[in-house]
Amino acid sequence: MPSLQVVNAKDCDEAIREMLHAWAEQKRRNATVANTQTPLGSLPIDVARKILLQADENSLARLAQTCQLLHNAAEEYRFQDVSAWSRQGFHSLYAALTAEVTDGSGRTRAQRVQSLTLSWDDPCLDRPVTASHIRGMLELVGGQLSGLVLSLPAPDVVLDSRQSPPLDLPPLPCLYALSASAAIISCLKNAPQNLTCLSVDRLPANNFHFFTTVSNIFSHTLQRLRVHRSFNQHFSRQSPVRICASLIDCRALVYLEVVDQACYEGGSTGLDQLDGLLDNPLVFMTAAEGTPVLQTLVWRPAWFGAYAYDQQTYTQNVITYTQQLHDAVDPRLKVTIEGPRDITEARIMTGEQWDSPTASAQ
User: What InterPro entries does the record point to (predicted)?
Assistant: First the structure.
């Protein structure tokens, strides 16, 4: 009858071999997935053999127990914050989340997901991630999802090359923060019922109709809005007052952040192209109607780094645009127009935290 130590040694041998096999399999899969890092500290087979030859039965038993505990702990905490940075990564992530693996509490991987990020730059017509793919992923993980990033190019959500189909979101009861490209927002058919924070990127600067879309979808719950706009060479309509005028019936919006950038470096940044809103009195008349409770506006214009280039014009622009916002929206509006410092510092100075659930509830 074999001793307990020998049995443990055999168990250890099997555990280590299984661990090495799983490690090799994971590395093989990750080699084809651009967004997944290779595991650190991979154990070569020759090192494993040396361990098996030199360690005694008690050491191997402890190693097996430790490996099992680490496996259980890793499975417990994996898949809380997941991301895919390529189409291949998206399909691999979906496969991992649908695997029949549970943690100590009996939860599947999909049931553990709290934050999901899908983001890549280049459109792909050969194997796009379509609206139905995105809905399928959200249906899989939607139960506890509180944060979602969908920063994708337009062709990736198009089923018909001539028309972007509506993206019908499944119920996402815990989702309060959404970050998405303008193309995705334009495809949305509905909004998560409890969403309070929205961040939008890849927005052409003069697409003010987009804000009407935002108003129609998110008007009832939206409290905090952040927008990244891209300008080409014309900055004559850059004032955030125009955004306020384009937002219709956003009666819960208390915080608006606008981040502008120039597409062409070395060209005009808009410092010398003042937005003459006096030529359009309708903008002044409607700016306050759609955002009646707006309290804070943070703006980083495309010319935020041009202070050293022309300090006088820079200072005058800050004064002019601040006065425009006070006149059009509310004299009590807390306005921060970004200078040559980081946008995060402006949030700290205004006491704002972008997507905190506590801040959203205030």
Answer: F-box-like_dom_sf (IPR036047), F-box_dom (IPR001810)
SS3 137: helix
Contact 199, 179 (CB under 8 A): yes
Query: d(Cα 87, Cα 93) in Å, to the nearest integer?
Result: 10
CB 165 within 8 A of CB 187: yes
Beta bridge partners of 148: 116, 178
Considering only CA atoms, which of 241, 312, 307 is closest in space to residue 280?
Answer: 241
Structure tokens at 42: 């991979």
Nearest-angstrom CA–CA distance, 63 and 16? 8
* pLDDT for residue 241: 92
Q: Determine the Cα–Cα distance for residues 186 and 40; give it in Å rounded to an integer.
A: 40
pLDDT for position 28: 61
**What's the CA gap between 65 and 6, in Å, rounded?**
15
**How far, in Å, CA of 147 to CA of 209, rounded?**
26
The residue extents of the domains of the chain are 4-77, 79-192, 196-362
Burial (Cβ within 10 Å: 0-12, 13-18, ≥19) of residue 106:
exposed
DSSP letters spanning 46-69: HHHHHHHHHS-HHHHHHHHHHHHH
Q: Report DSSP letters for 181-231, one per residue.
A: EHHHHHHBS---TT--EEEEEEEETT-THHHHHHHHHHTTT--EEEEEEEE
**Cα 171 versus chain centre, distance:** 19
- Tokens of residue 53, six digits: 């030859």
> Contact 334/280 with Cβ under 8 angstroms?
no
pLDDT, residue 138, reads 92
- Mean pLDDT in order along the chain per 10 residues (362 residues): 41 62 63 45 63 74 76 75 88 88 82 90 68 87 90 65 68 92 87 92 89 90 94 86 90 94 71 77 82 93 86 91 91 85 47 51 39
What's the pTM value of the predicted model, to 2 decimals?
A: 0.74
Residue recorded with tokens 């194997």: 127
Hey, which residues does 119 pair with through a beta bridge?
151
| Whole-number Å distance between alpha carbons of 101 and 263 | 46
> How far is residue 341's CA from residue 210's CA, in Å, rounded to a whole number?
29
